[in-house]
Amino acid sequence: GCVGGGGANATGGAAQRSKARESMLNVTVSAGTTMPPSNTLFSGVAGVAARVLGDPCEASEAARVAGVSLVADLINATASPDNELAVDAAGSTNMLAALSNAVTPAEEGDANAAAASEAAAAAARNLMATRLGPSLPEEKPVATNATKMSYVASRLSPTSERAASGSDSSATAAAGGAAFEVPASALSLSGDDPVDTFLLALGFDAHAAAAAAAAANASAEATDVAAAPRVAGTLSLVLANGTSGDELAVHDLPVPI
Question: Which of 5, 188, 195, 201 sits CB 3.0–4.6 Å from 11 for a disulfide?
Answer without folding.
Answer: 5
